[in-house]
Amino acid sequence: MTQAAVIDGYRLWLRLAHSTSVDPARATANLDALRERLAAVAEAGVVDAWIETLLERAANGIAVRRESSVQLVDVEAVSVTEVGATLRGCVRDGGVLYEIASGRVVDAEIRFERVTVGFVPDGAGWKFARVDAIKPVSRCGSTR
């Protein structure tokens, strides 16, 4: 299980989280199917927290524009052991939140966050298990 597999696992989680944010009402219409889809790449605590976010957005009629994105743009360190892995990097959150009914943009701010996230082994790969830290920064690649 390599450092590249940890990075790929986190990028996969970010893509999956974004795709479910595009239409949270549809994504949460079948919670069992959604939970199964998310559980393929993340541990239960992460899955439950994300489903809670999606349910809140669906209840408030909020979604993320399909063309916006959240990306891991800097990988600073990856530590791999037999029992887990940690990734430290920088994420560019360019997700544009809007009201579905009116199309009014609620939040279009681009944010950069230094993250430390943890993974647990899962067969030949890794499952996203926890967020250890999130720190806002002015941009990725900026002085820590």
Highlighted features:
alpha+beta, globular, three-stranded antiparallel sheet, about 140 residues, single chain, Nuclear Transport Factor 2, Chain: A
Question: Gist?
Answer:
This protein is of the alpha+beta class and 144 residues long.
Give a description of the structure:
The structure is a single chain. The chain is of the alpha+beta class. The chain has one domain: Roll (Nuclear Transport Factor 2, Chain: A). Helix content is 33%, strand content 38%. It is built from four helices and seven strands. It has a four-stranded antiparallel β-sheet with strand order 2-3-6-7. It has a three-stranded antiparallel β-sheet with strand order 1-4-5. It is globular.
Chain-wise SSE layout:
Blueprint: H1 3-21, H2 24-27, H3 31-39, H4 44-59, E1 62-64, E2 70-80, E3 85-93, E4 97-99, E5 105-107, E6 111-122, E7 125-137
Antiparallel strand pairs: 1-4, 2-3, 3-6, 4-5, 6-7
Level of helix content?
A: 25-40%
In whole angstroms, the N-to-C terminal distance is: 28 Å
Count of domain modules: 1
Q: Quickly give the CATH architecture.
A: Roll
Number of helices: 4
Q: Indicate the structural class.
A: alpha+beta
Spatial arrangement of strands, main beta sheet: 2-3-6-7
Following the backbone from N to C, one meets helices and strands in this order, namely HHHHEEEEEEE
Which parts are unreliable, with pLDDT below 50 for 5 consecutive residues or more?
A: none
What can be said about the biggest beta sheet? 4 strands, antiparallel
Gyration radius, in Å: 15 Å
Question: What's the average pLDDT?
Answer: 93
